[in-house]
Amino acid sequence: MSTIRPHLLIIDALNLIRRLHAVQSQQALTPAQALVATRANLINTCRKLLANSEPTHAIAVFDGEVHSWRKEVYPAYKEGRTPMPPELREGLSTLQDAFWECGVDALLSETDEADDLIATLASGIASHGHQATIISTDKGFCQLICPQIRIRDYFNKRWLDAAFVQQQYGVAPAQLVDFWALTGISGSNIKGVAGIGPKTATQLLQQYGNLAVMIEACQQAETAKPLLKLRLHQDEALLAQRLVRLQRDIPLGFNLRDIRYPPQPD
Prior knowledge:
Elements: E1 7-12, H1 13-25, H2 31-53, E2 57-63, H3 69-73, H4 86-90, H5 92-101, E3 105-109, H6 114-126, E4 131-135, E5 149-153, E6 158-159, H7 162-169, H8 176-183, E7 184-185, E8 190-191, H9 198-208, H10 211-217, H11 225-232, H12 234-244
Parallel strand pairs: 1-2, 1-4, 2-3, 4-5
Antiparallel strand pairs: 5-6, 7-8
Helix pairs in contact: 1-2, 2-5, 8-9, 8-12
């Protein structure tokens, strides 16, 4: 008898909710009406995702009110980001309930960022040779891409896969952390190396392969101009690398049996 291979569907909950809510906010609705419409849309979207993905396990991961370790080592982390609309923040519990109504458990941590929890979940199942599908528009997850982990941009109806990364950045998924270490990520207010933009970062990675080799090369007496910039801003690059790299080893406190889909009685 053949057994069904595990397939974990991971929904980046706030990434999905904020985009659904933004659509409703453009309509002539009161904040309360927009929240009700967002909830209905969320249930509809969640059911579509489940039907299309046919997962054996599913979870929606939320960001809590987390003062993350990244903020500790870099206080300017995510400064300047547009805050969540207050009516959406107040309605999060009803939106969590919407996932439960669809048979999907919701995970919210008070100590870890959703991105790190998602990376830990996906990497954990991939390490056993099983499949994980992440639903998010966040390109930061592209560093996780491998045969067992794929990312679906639901709103643009596309896969953020190795071909997408190559087209967008000119590097392999495994090189993305070092790419962003050089260029920074403006959306998270992470600075890279001053004077190194995406084109130069791609060229350097194509030539040297990774940041460690570049740092070694830039210690040479005669250094090319981009590497000279790296030599001057090496500490910033290494900090950015640390901030951008997703954690994959967070203790979760539950196992796959707890997030089976559809839910099964113990």
